[in-house]
């Protein structure tokens, strides 16, 4: 359950500043603003520019059991109000990440959510088991938008049964809060959210980027070496708002909204639609200070609307 | 690395196809090194989510300049920046060129198009003088030759159409020079330009058992090492791995780069 | 089958101008550029600005059996690189359209494709039957992204079985070429295209707009009276290219690509990805001359790339 | 209706919150009627897919002017239009006000904010003179009063805060005038402004059995009648139906409009 941490107290002490702190599925967050997986590295990359202690949480780039090389370049291409990326989930693997980056992350007073993925059910389970005992890891975000090798490469996250199995497998191997991250390219997102909830998810995050592609008409080749990739950025925000609204309707567990946030406005839209927290992705590239501006902007909004606590805004949509 | 608002101090054409954007940017300018770059946001290009990377061309006190060519919608929009406008800059980014050259060695710079920009910054910061080879398609792509001369550098030019300097690739005058100078000098290469040029310079360095510092050009997302968009296959202490051009580069020694084709 | 109409001839006569004319599922089109349903009215609206005789085809606003009033206002809202619309399929019905607009449309030498929809299978069938005998109607585009009243309002186009039934029902009642228009919010678009092909579709068009919504954060109300609507415009183009590419891989019938075309570049991208024709939608609002510019631009491109006929470009992607 | 490139002839502030954009636009200007509007594309707002509708405020020879208030990102971007810039215009659009007033009748104009723009165009094209009631929140929202005076129109002003003219809604001076003039004149109303004002004027017209021509304001997509975004419930010859404000309007007679709340 999400709850507003002692509003009155912090209300009193910080001259009418509303509290942004929330308890999300057991995670204590200073505020509901995270940085999205894959857009903020593992922590150190933006640390010169962004005070990590100010963030609600850092969701690190997706980690798999073994190190993974990712795709060939070009890996990104800019499109109107967005970006298509095909990084290919490059990462140093569970051990590499834990040894190289966890010591750094532990130095900060910020929740660390590790985004995990696998090519098989077993891999998801192994990765979850590994992090269950790693000090300083507060939760696992489970990226189910990955090709299921044993099922001919179609994504785990676009089939209810494989989604259920991934969540159950991860649940079985860790006591950490688990947050399945939904794929957006399904016709009934609510059903997928429900399946996650029924299989032990503590929260849901959405959306991941949209399958998309761009072609160089002069060479007639796909611009990305991987042919297609995932669309992110402002372009997908209105779709994400609709999906978040649908998911928040059917699940009891908290929702973390992602997709096209560039300012407090889009974050507040998500919260009103039903999100308990949000994550800033592509906008970190446009302006590394976006996440901090979103935190400030939400606070200002609550003051302007005379609200004690951000939780009062969640799913406050009037229809 | 910092994020800083720069104010346009001047913005002028250089030749017909290039422009120099001079920014008042005290904090970034203070620590900028030759070979490093800045990441510039073009705010008036409303639907652009990515910044644009540009090598640092000059640092004069609190002012930092870039030298750019208009090649697409971002640089086209940059053209309308006026004196007094502000732009958000992240920088300085990446690792630059090594500035020291062992005594006895001769710095040999090889540049193409806007590739001379970081080399010029390098030449101004280097103790030694040496020789510069500039290549380009046409005469208009040959920039800064006089400025390098003024700094006491020897300049050799080659253009594909022969409209300026020798006709052919920059490797033509380079190879000629290497032959005449063999034994007499120990060249240390610094190159910035198209991959073909970088590879050619690298090959010569490896063959001659010299060092060559190459500045790579990759499409970038974050510019700070977070997104892994800009990777390059490299060999680091014997190991094949992938490096981030924005963070681990953009400058690599020729032996470390694994060219794919 | 799509084929290039006597390239050599028109090649000879119009000083090296390539031919854009194609035969698409029996439809003879001057060029592969149409105007998309709902963005160009019924013909007269843009006739002062656009010479209708120059278009490949006009796809009229969706028609249902009886007149339909549509949604309350606001019906549209602009978002980054796009537009969300919830017009609600307002239309004068089969008789109203036929009497009011067909006489006007018959005056032009342009293919008329009527976009049809229904709230039930029977309605789809009735509408198809009506137009089967209407002079001047050249083909039917079947909008399957409509709520299936009898199935609790979930869209026909997001279920394989209901998609199959709609296409079969329409097929049974008309000899006109039928072109099912696919909903984009499915995980396996290829399967939907295949089902259409197997049930007698002569061509496939995609994509329709994406379910999306926007919220006014000051009032906390959805901006659209209908709460949610469909996202269109440049924002969805990279997603549409990917979906068109997937569909063209699995079907033999021609594909008509729609989504975010603002210039010849996006249209050519679609054709390279596998489309035989394209339709311009939202861009008609931005610049009513877009469709004509796209036609010119494709012609220039073919000249520049020394191609005799636009058909040579279809699915010429190099991967 | 045409699509034409307009060239900015002048672009000036009117008061503190409004601007007048004068465009050289011969073809559109030639046929423009009071109450019609143009659809303007703000090309430098790269991610905008919709044009912006503006009433025609003035037509002088080949020049057409609009009077606008900055309320969002489009109008904010319009502010940077400079003399010589070109903008794509579609127009003239919609049906304007009837220009003829039966002898004996008095034209009564009621406007709020930028709503006076089409009324001013109307006043210049009308044979008769009459009276104008302007309402607004503050003094800055009261525009063109002198210009109407110069044309020989009687002007009454009301502001919510009383900073100019009477304190209160525009209906305050209007009702006062109606009482004093009852029997003496047959008013014919022309109104443009917020829905509340339009409805109030319409109610009085229906009550007094007079005519009131109201110019409605709706968010628009195409502006030409194609997209059905701008519909308004209306009563046309007894039948309830939906009309397109852009094509069948924006001007409707009060009895035809079905107000929803
Ligand atoms: C380290 C580094 C230093 C550079 N230094 C300079 C310089 O000093 N002067 C100069 O003129 N240019 C320089 N470039 C290239 C410059 O970044 C591109 O010309 C610029 O990004 C083009 O943007 P655009 O929107 O005009 O082009 P578009 O083609 O419209 O851009 C589309 C996308 O592709 C990217 N892109 C296009 N070309 C390049 C390229 N060659 N390299 C990287 N990204 C590209 C853009 O950043 C953008 O994300 C440098 C690039 C790098 C990586
Ligand atoms: C027939 C007609 C005549 C008009 N005449 C004038 C005039 O003479 N002077 C003037 O200042 N304004 C006029 N308006 C209002 C003007 O169109 C809006 O102020 C303008 O579109 C706002 O654009 P924006 O991008 O700045 O605002 P934003 O709020 O950023 O625009 C977002 C979207 O909402 C639409 N929108 C916002 N407000 C309005 C509105 N009031 N009416 C219609 N669409 C709106 C915009 O067109 C855009 O599509 C007129 C509107 C109509 C329908
Ligand atoms: C370059 C890049 C890399 C990403 N890598 C991951 C990843 O490793 N795991 C994951 O679950 N999502 C990843 N994402 C998706 C983002 O976390 C986010 O869901 C998506 O970008 C939508 O948010 P945005 O529109 O704010 O960017 C990545 C996105 C980008 C742009
Ligand atoms: C205002 C509006 C109305 C539309 N009405 C219909 C319709 O009646 N039937 C239909 O099949 N598609 C309709 N569409 C979808 C378009 O035909 C097209 O599929 C979609 O807008 C994507 O193309 P675009 O990005 O070029 O606009 C409508 C789109 C818009 C913007
Ligand atoms: S650009 Fe992001 S890692 Fe180099
Ligand atoms: S704005 Fe499209 S019908 Fe009126």
SSE layout:
The complex is a heterotetramer, with 2 copies of chain A (319 residues) and 2 copies of chain B (261 residues).
Chain A: E1 3-4, H1 7-13, E2 22-24, E3 27-29, E4 33-35, E5 57-63, E6 76-79, E7 82-85, H2 93-106, E8 111-116, H3 121-132, E9 139-143, H4 160-173, E10 178-181, H5 189-198, E11 204-206, E12 210-212, E13 215-216, E14 221-222, E15 229-232, H6 237-250, E16 255-258, H7 264-273, E17 277-280, H8 283-286, H9 290-304
Parallel strand pairs in A: 4-5, 4-17, 5-8, 8-9, 9-10, 11-16, 16-17
Antiparallel strand pairs in A: 1-2, 2-3, 6-7, 7-15, 12-15, 13-14
Helix pairs in contact in A: 3-4, 4-5, 5-6, 6-7, 7-9
Chain B: E1 2-14, E2 18-24, H1 26-31, E3 37-40, E4 52-55, E5 58-60, E6 63-69, H2 73-78, E7 86-93, E8 105-112, H3 116-125, E9 131-136, H4 145-150, E10 154-159, E11 166-167, H5 171-181, E12 186-192, H6 195-208, E13 211-215, E14 231-236, E15 239-244, E16 251-253
Parallel strand pairs in B: 8-9, 8-12, 9-10, 10-11, 12-13
Antiparallel strand pairs in B: 1-2, 1-7, 2-6, 3-4, 3-7, 5-6, 13-16, 14-15
The complex binds flavin-adenine dinucleotide (2 copies), flavin mononucleotide (FMN) (2 copies) and FE2/S2 (inorganic) cluster (2 copies).
One FE2/S2 (inorganic) cluster binds at residues 220-223, 225-230, 244, 246-247 of chain D.
How does this structure look, described?
The complex is a heterotetramer, with 2 copies of chain A (319 residues) and 2 copies of chain B (261 residues). By secondary structure, chain A is α/β, with parallel strands linked by helices. In chain A, the strands form 4 sheets. Chain A has an 8-stranded parallel sheet with strand order 10-9-8-5-4-17-16-11. A 4-stranded antiparallel sheet of chain A has the order 6-7-15-12, with no helix packed on it. A 3-stranded antiparallel sheet of chain A has the order 1-2-3, with no helix packed on it. Chain A has helices at residues 7-13, 93-106, 121-132, 160-173, 189-198, 237-250, 264-273, 283-286, 290-304, and strands spanning 3-4, 22-24, 27-29, 33-35, 57-63, 76-79, 82-85, 111-116, 139-143, 178-181, 204-206, 210-212, 215-216, 221-222, 229-232, 255-258, 277-280. In chain A, helix 4 packs parallel to helix 5 (189-198), helix 5 (189-198) crosses helix 6 and helix 7 (264-273) packs across helix 9. With 261 residues, chain B is α/β, with parallel strands linked by helices. Chain B contains 6 helices and 16 strands. Chain B starts with a strand and ends in an 8-residue tail after the last strand. The model of chain B has no long low-confidence stretch (mean pLDDT 94). Chains in contact: A-B, A-C, B-D, C-D. The structure holds flavin-adenine dinucleotide (2 copies), flavin mononucleotide (2 copies) and FE2/S2 (inorganic) cluster (FES) (2 copies). Residues 220-223, 225-230, 244, 246-247 of chain B line the site of one FE2/S2 (inorganic) cluster.
């Amino acid at each position: 359950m999400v709850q507003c941490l002692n509003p009155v107290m912090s209300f009193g002490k910080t001259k009418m500043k509303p509290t942004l702190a929330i308890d999300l599925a057991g995670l204590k967050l200073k505020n509901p603003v995270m940085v999205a997986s894959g857009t903020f590295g593992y922590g150190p990359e933006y640390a010169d520019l962004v005070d990590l202690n100010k963030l609600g949480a850092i969701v690190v780039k997706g980690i798999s059991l073994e190190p993974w090389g990712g795709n060939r370049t070009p890996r990104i291409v800019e499109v109107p109000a967005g970006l298509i990326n095909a990084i290919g989930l490059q990462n140093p693997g569970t051990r590499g990440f834990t040894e190289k980056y966890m010591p750094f992350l532990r130095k900060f007073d910020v929740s660390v959510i590790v985004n995990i993925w696998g090519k098989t059910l077993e891999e998801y389970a192994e990765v979850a088991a590994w992090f269950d005992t790693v000090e300083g890891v507060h939760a696992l975000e489970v990226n189910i938008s990955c090709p299921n090798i044993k099922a001919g490469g179609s994504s785990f996250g676009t089939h209810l049964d494989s989604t259920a199995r991934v969540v159950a497998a991860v649940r079985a191997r860790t006591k950490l809060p688990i947050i399945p991250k939904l794929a957006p390219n399904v016709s009934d997102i609510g059903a997928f959210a429900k399946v996650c909830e029924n299989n032990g998810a503590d929260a849901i995050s959405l959306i991941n980027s949209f399958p998309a592609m761009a072609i160089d008409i002069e060479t007639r080749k796909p611009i990305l070496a991987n042919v297609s990739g995932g669309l992110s950025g402002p372009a997908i925000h209105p779709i994400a708002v609709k999906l978040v609204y649908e998911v928040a309707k059917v699940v009891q567990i908290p929702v973390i909204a992602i997709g096209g946030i560039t300012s407090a406005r889009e974050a507040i839209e998500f919260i009103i639609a039903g999100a308990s927290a949000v994550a800033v992705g592509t906008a970190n590239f446009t302006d590394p200070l976006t996440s901090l501006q979103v935190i400030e902007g939400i606070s200002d909004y609550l003051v302007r609307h005379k609200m004690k606590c951000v939780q009062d805004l969640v799913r406050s949509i009037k229809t | 690395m910092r994020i800083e608002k720069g104010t346009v101090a001047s913005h002028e054409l250089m030749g017909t196809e290039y422009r120099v954007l001079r920014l008042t940017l005290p904090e970034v300018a203070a620590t900028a090194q030759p070979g490093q770059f800045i990441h510039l946001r073009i705010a008036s290009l409303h639907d652009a989510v990515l910044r644009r990377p540009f090598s640092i061309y000059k640092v004069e006190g609190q002012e930092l300049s870039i030298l750019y060519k208009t090649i697409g919608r971002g640089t086209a929009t940059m053209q309308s920046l006026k004196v007094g406008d502000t732009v958000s800059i992240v920088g300085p980014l990446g690792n630059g060129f090594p500035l020291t050259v062992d005594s006895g060695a001769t710095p040999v710079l090889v540049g193409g198009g806007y590739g001379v920009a970081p080399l010029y910054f390098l030449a101004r910061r280097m103790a030694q003088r040496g020789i510069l080879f500039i290549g380009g398609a046409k005469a208009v792509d040959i920039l800064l030759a006089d400025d390098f001369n003024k700094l006491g550098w020897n300049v050799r030019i080659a253009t594909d159409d022969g409209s300026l300097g020798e006709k052919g690739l920059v490797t033509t005058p380079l190879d000629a020079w290497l032959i005449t100078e063999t034994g007499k000098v120990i060249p240390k290469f610094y190159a910035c330009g198209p991959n073909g040029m970088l590879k050619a310079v690298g090959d010569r360095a490896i063959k001659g058992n010299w060092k060559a510092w190459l500045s790579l050009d990759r499409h970038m997302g974050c510019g700070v090492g977070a997104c892994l968009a800009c990777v390059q296959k490299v060999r680091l202490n014997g190991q094949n791995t992938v490096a981030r051009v924005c963070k681990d580069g953009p400058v690599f020694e020729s032996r470390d780069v694994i060219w794919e084709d």
